[in-house]
Specification:
Number of domains: 3
CATH topology of the largest domain: Transferase(Phosphotransferase), domain 1
Strand content: 5-15%
Length: about 450
């Protein structure tokens, strides 16, 4: 008998005495004990039927009154990045849960041997966002609650996998707090230690800490370590102490990470150059434009001024927002849009903080980094095209409209609005919206959709 065969025989004989399920012992050879803690052992096993490898997590029923992995998604066929569930076995004293073994390197070790660029770090976090969107979208949602480098595997092709659902739980809206307090120090949010029930924003907190670790090498914030500002904003919002200050969902995190990518930076640079060129062209053409303005009449033969928006494009804009954000808030397309609807879209679809959206400088309303809208309007205020454009541009890139002086023009608009309108006119963000005032809900949807398409580089 070879030493390997003899070794496996000794291991199997030892396992048989610990009350493991008989079917589990009959179906798998135990190759290695990966970890052993009170009440839980994790093994690398090999199927006796086809030789495939799996990870078996075995829980002692005298320690656990439930299987901690019970919240794991039963299948990951629709989401690459989650190990496939294989089987579970149970005896009087033990529960064993088996999942696919992922060959690769834990992220905690991967960073020691690989120099990760900022773009590679962003790609890893975007892939984790896709996985979390799937988990949080299950019914009921599954909250992982232990996102950390040790639980992220990078395979040979560079793929990203999320493993270890030991403390995952299903979110129960009626619960006030978690029954069990687990988590990894530094990565777990405050509410995971008993302040409140954890929901999807707990995973968002941990993802923000992971992003900080990958960029700085530490889980702690350090003002002396400079991080690319768009990514620092993502970290700060993800790791806010109060859950309501964080992104509303992982889709909003993904949107922010996409906006921090190199393509977005290139677009902003190109836009700035184009804006400068357009300014020169406007100055050169000033006299011609002045002449045309003085002699222009819309009532020439065969011409009717267009104040009606393009119905087909408006319908496409509503459909775009419905399909991409899974929302019906724009379905009443012919109704008049108001500030309340715009604020709701900023919060629910784009993940902005409610206080940021509703805040206003009460001493002197003006544009500010602290508040999204410079006007203290109530939710019933109707929206005109310039206001919609200001919001659509600013939600994607506040830097474009960042002229926080308090000087308003004759229409009561601020410099940031004028910058947004000029930016929009040069890039067709109002294409299809011909009415200047009291926009319909459909027209607002079209402006937001046009902005999405431009900033994300999508074709129309």
């Amino acid at each position: 008998m070879s030493e390997l065969t003899q070794g496996l025989k000794v291991i199997d004989e030892g396992f048989a005495g610990f009350g493991f399920p008989a079917e589990f012992l009959d179906s798998f050879d135990q190759l290695e004990c990966l970890s052993s803690r009170k009440g839980k052992d994790t093994f690398l096993v090999r199927s006796r039927s086809d030789g495939s490898l799996a990870v078996a997590k075995c829980y002692d029923k005298s320690v656990f009154s439930f299987a901690p992995g019970a919240a794991e998604p039963a299948s990951s066929e629709v989401c690459k990045g989650l190990p496939r569930f294989i089987a579970s076995y149970e005896s009087e004293s033990c529960v064993c849960v088996l999942r696919e073994y992922i060959e690769g390197t834990p992220l905690s070790e991967y960073v020691k041997t690989e120099t990760l660029s900022r773009e590679r770090i962003r790609e890893i976090c975007l892939r984790l966002c896709d996985i979390l969107v799937y988990l949080h979208g299950l019914r009921p949602p599954v909250i992982h609650r232990d996102i950390k480098p040790e639980n992220v595997i990078i395979d040979a092709s560079g793929g990203v996998w999320l493993i270890d659902f030991d403390i995952a739980r299903e979110f129960k809206p009626e619960a006030e707090s978690d029954t069990f307090f687990f988590g990894t120090k530094g990565y777990a949010p405050p509410e995971q230690y008993g302040f409140a029930q954890t929901d999807a924003r707990a995973d968002i907190y941990s993802l923000g800490v992971l992003l900080r670790f990958l960029l700085t090498g530490s889980v702690r914030a350090n003002a002396n370590v400079k991080v690319y500002r768009p990514l620092q904003k993502v970290i700060d919002k993800c790791t806010a102490f109060a859950p309501e200050k964080r992104y509303a969902d992982v889709r909003a995190v993904k949107k922010a990470l996409n906006a921090a990518g190199p393509q977005a930076r290139v677009r902003r640079t190109v836009c700035l150059i184009a804006a400068c060129a357009a300014g020169v062209a406007l100055l050169a053409a000033g006299s011609i434009a002045a002449y045309k303005a003085l002699t222009y009449t819309p009532f020439t033969e065969g011409y009717v001024p267009a104040y009606i928006s393009d119905e087909k494009k408006v319908a496409e804009g509503v459909k775009y927002m419905r399909d991409n954000y899974d929302t019906d808030m724009f379905d009443a397309a012919d109704d008049i849009a108001d500030i309340g609807l715009l604020r709701r879209a900023l919060i629910e679809l784009y993940g902005l903080d409610r206080d940021y959206v509703y805040g206003i400088n009460t001493d002197m309303p003006q544009e500010s980094d602290d508040f999204f809208l410079p006007w203290g309007w109530d939710d019933g205020q109707t929206i005109d095209r310039d206001i919609a454009v200001y919001a659509a541009v600013k939600v994607h890139d506040p830097g474009i409209v960042a002229d926080w002086s308090s000087l308003k023009d004759d229409n009561g608009y601020y410099p940031g609005v004028r910058l947004a309108v000029a930016f929009s006119d040069a890039r067709g963000l109002t294409d299809g919206v011909n009415k200047p005032g009291d926009l319909s809900i459909g027209e607002l949807a079209l402006i937001l959709a046009n902005a999405d398409r431009f900033f994300y580089g999508l074709s129309r």
